[in-house]
């Protein structure tokens, strides 16, 4: 299938814009690849330290016999359901590596925090920056520089982007991402949301709410809604960084272990002495565009409009929200998965999952089929679904076939929508994005008086006091990277949904983020520049009419131009800054807050 002209044009725009930085990046990884392997290049004391902790036979294998040495970078902890399965992975990986004449070492453990735990608390103000901490931790582990490749064990919101950003600093190494899979379905996401809305109205108590939440989040694996964590997994498939079809096999499925063994076999197949496909060459403008297309086609998380900008920059490429917006105009919405529908990711997988989506996009010319992947067969391998082979003696793959449920997945020729689920908004309030795929069509345009809040707690208090029982655009400012680390504001979804359910025309405008699970209420998010960096949200006043027009791509304060130009911006108070600087470790992130770039530049703290 011929590549769609808009996809080709966006790719070329990225290629041309990024030429100097991408060329410099490729030169650096070529220089790194040209060196001798670590155990031959380093001094004897360095080598002795590197391998002192492994059994003598393994030491002899790596040093004397020059066997491949694979790094394991692991986000394991047993507090978080998605990462708990990773505790058993390193022994399995080492066993498979030994069987194949190689060695594997746990090079680093990286932190993994859960936004579901910290949502609405001060800890959420560390969430976005944890991505860059994970990237740095990955780099620290790999900086020992004695590895021939790496396996990256991570799954959730900031963990996968952080691992990928860190890994790209060692772009000369072949690497494969190893997922853990979603938990089995519990209480449906729709039922869970209903209970949350009842709780917001005071119609059920803490006991009933906790019971519902525990039935939804009930065992090991990722949450089953299509938020940032599961969007990560879709994007890893679209970029060819997984074993094909590995994303949504549950941790409890015995196929999971064999897929992990296959990841070992895959990374070894990509070594310099074999089919050399290092991650820095694999992640190019084609794979970045493929990830963007997959995100749009599935109505994925808005967080990736920040994270994938940062990922691209880590590989010497520059993308922006205009690129997403242009792609969204031609990439159809093929999936309805909560919060963009009622199905969860397990139903999505049963209906055809990533393999179905990738095949439909390839056949429609909406993905690059010549992009490199960790597999020799290229991206077409990712249109197939893994299963046990005959006699359970290894893996086999089958074509995704037709959609197993056309209420969840549809072909590119008969999509849920002819355009993707994300829109760029511009106007006198700045640049922002909105996820329209889950918003009712009659709510795509909202025009109402603004109510200004300086925190999400202030909005919640106003809701409880009955002050928002009207058409209103709730503006929550001082929520950007420099102000307080750009927390998600998902706690605002239930009360705003209650107001919308009462028939009021309601929208949220903020320089903060919303959860990957949000979408029912129209929300212009990531407003850039943020208020703390001189953005126009600081000029808004209570009662100003704000118009959010998703079809037209506009976000505007309908204020007389002369008056607008005369206004003095509001300022964060010293008390607000002091509050944001202390508690739950926020003291250690002051430098990140000061140095963070705007959301459209990835909120990067390392550039």
Automatic annotation (TrEMBL):
EC number(s) recorded for this UniProt protein: 4.2.1.12
Gene3D superfamilies: IlvD/EDD C-terminal domain-like
Keyword Lyase: yes
Dihydroxy-acid/6-phosphogluconate dehydratase C-terminal domain segment(s): 408-603
Cofactor(s) this protein requires: [4Fe-4S] cluster
Enzymatic reactions: 6-phospho-D-gluconate = 2-dehydro-3-deoxy-6-phospho-D-gluconate + H2O
Domain of life: Bacteria
Binding sites annotated in the UniProt record for [4Fe-4S] cluster: 156, 223
The family this protein is said to belong to: Belongs to the IlvD/Edd family.
Name of the protein in its database record: Phosphogluconate dehydratase
Organism: Ramlibacter ginsenosidimutans
Source lineage: Bacteria, Pseudomonadati, Pseudomonadota, Betaproteobacteria, Burkholderiales
Gene (UniProt): edd
